[in-house]
Amino acid sequence: QRQLMESGGGVVQPGGSLRLACIASGFSLDDYSVGWFRRGPGKEREAISCLSSSDYEPYYADFVKGRFTASRDSAKNTLYLQMDKIEREDTAVYYCAAVYGTFFNPIGVCSPSHARNGMDVWGKGTQVNVSS
C-alpha cells in the first residue's frame, strides 16, 4: 500500500554536504503534508522540516535553518533534503513522513505529537554519521 523509502545517508565530515531522497509509492505526495524527522543517539525523534500540502515554503527547526533545504518534486513523487554545513550534532537516523490533508501552517505538521508517531506514513529511516 502506501510506502516511503529514504536513501542517500552515509558518513560525512563536519562542514560537508549530503542529499537525502524519499520516494513515495502507493499514493501521491500532492495530497499529503510532509516532513523530515530525525532521531539522534540517546534522543527522541524530532522534527526538522515540514511542508503543508497548501504551502510553497517549508518550516524549518531553528537548528537547521540556513543549512538544510527541503523540497518536493511532484513529477517524481519524491521528497529531498539537501544538507549543507553539516555539524557533528546532525548524526542521526533521518526519516521522511507524510500525513493526509492540509494544515494552516507547516509548523503544525512538525508538532511533537507528529514527530513521535502521529504521521500516517513513515519511511524506515537512513543513517547519517558525522565524523572527522
Structure notes:
- The chain is globular.
- 5% of the residues lie in helices and 45% in strands.
- The longest helix has 7 residues, at 112-118.
- The chain has one helix at residues 112-118; strands at residues 3-7, 10-12, 18-25, 32-39, 46-51, 59-60, 68-73, 78-83, 92-100, 121-122, 126-130.
- It is built from one helix and eleven strands.
- The termini are far apart.
- The chain is mainly beta.
- The strands form two sheets. Strands 2, 4, 5, 6, 9, 10 and 11 form a seven-stranded mixed beta sheet that branches. It has a four-stranded antiparallel beta sheet with strand order 1-3-8-7, with no helix packed on it.
Describe this protein with a few key phrases.
globular; mainly beta; 1 helix; 132 residues
Write the layout of secondary structure elements.
Layout: E1 3-7, E2 10-12, E3 18-25, E4 32-39, E5 46-51, E6 59-60, E7 68-73, E8 78-83, E9 92-100, H1 112-118, E10 121-122, E11 126-130
Parallel strand pairs: 2-11
Antiparallel strand pairs: 1-3, 3-8, 4-5, 4-9, 5-6, 7-8, 9-10, 9-11
